[in-house]
Amino acid sequence: MRCVIARYPFDLFKSEVETSMESVRPEPVTAVCVDIGGRVYPVKQVGEVITGQDRRDFTVGEMTRALTRLGFTCHAAPPQLPSAVAPAYGPLAQWGD
Questions:
Q1: How far is CA 4 from CA 62, 71, 90, in A?
Q2: Is the predicted pLDDT of residue 75 greater than 80, yes or no?
Q3: Calpha distance 17→86 (Å, rounded)
Q4: In sequence order, which residues have a C-beta less than 8 Å from that of residue 37 and are 6 or more positions away?
């Protein structure tokens, strides 16, 4: 699929994005993110890897639109862990847990 990111045209394919991200360790997610290969990545990290551009050169919106058109699932916020996986300590823990 052809798309323009930060005024530069790119031909992106879902399989190539998946292959590019296989060996990349996901950074901590604090904002808009995308599911690729069972892992959750920040959209800006994916954009930097697949375009070779600096993150400051493109917007989250540009990358979100491109990744969604390729068939990836993007989230406005990091997905929440199921309560069974959440730690039983810290500020969210209940007394007596």
A1: 8, 17, 44
A2: yes
A3: 30
A4: 18, 21, 22
Residue 86 has pLDDT above 90, yes or no: no
What is this structure's pTM? 0.77
Q: How sure is the predictor about 54, in pLDDT bands with cuts at 50, 70 and 90?
A: very high
What's the angle, vertex CA 29, arms to CA 94 and CA 83, rounded to 5?
30
- Residue at 11: amino acid letter: D
Query: What's the Cα-to-Cα distance from 23 to each of 13, 35, 45, 56, 63, rounded to whole Å?
Result: 17, 15, 13, 23, 20
Residues in the chain: 97
Query: Which two tokens mark 76?
Result: 């406005």
Q: Work out the angle between the directed axes of helices 43-51 and 60-70 (0-180°, nearest 10).
A: 80
